[in-house]
Amino acid sequence: MRSDPMTPLPPCPQCQSTFVYEDGANYICPECSHEWSREAAPAEAAEVQRVWKDAHGNVLNDGDSVTVIKDLKIKGSSAVVKVGTKVKNIRLIEGDHDIDCKIDGFGSMQLKSEYIKKA
């Protein structure tokens, strides 16, 4: 019996199937018949760290400075963030708009990484 029913089981390390089930101290994959012990499957190590990249494929980090590469209309306003606008000290977040920043003259907003390049 599982100790915590809210914790999802890890995917199969061989075929990545999500239909894994527990059998005593082991996990079993019904699709490829692979068996492995619970101790061999650390849940935290299985999490993949997300990497944010700009429009040109450069890796972004918190605190980077970036430049806008496309005129961006601001929702609910007639203002536009122009091409070439520099944005300093970005913060990377999860979601569709994955950059949180402050732009001089516009204030705090979120941008998509596909519309910026690393400065």
Protein described:
The protein is mainly beta. It contains 1 helix and 11 strands; from the N terminus they run βββαββββββββ. A hairpin with a 2-residue loop joins β1 (21-23) and β2 (26-28). The model has no long low-confidence stretch (mean pLDDT 86). One of its GO terms (molecular function) is hydrolase activity.
List the helices and strands and how they pair.
Layout (H helix, E strand, L loop, with lengths): L20 E3 L2 E3 L6 E3 L5 H4 L19 E3 L3 E2 L6 E2 L4 E2 L3 E2 L6 E5 L3 E5 L4 E3 L1
Antiparallel strand pairs: 1-2, 2-3, 4-7, 4-11, 5-6, 8-9, 9-10
Write out the strand line-up for the largest beta sheet, numbering strands in chain order: 1-2-3
Order of helices and strands: EEEHEEEEEEEE
Q: Tell me, briefly, the overall form.
A: elongated
Catalogue the unreliable spans.
none
Mean pLDDT: 86
Task: Offer a concise description of the structure.
The chain has one helix and eleven strands. The strands form four sheets. A three-stranded antiparallel β-sheet has the order 1-2-3, with no helix packed on it.
Structure characteristics:
119 residues; mainly beta; three-stranded antiparallel sheet; 1 helix; 28% strand; elongated; hydrolase activity; Phosphonoacetate hydrolase; YjdM_N; YjdM_C; YjdM
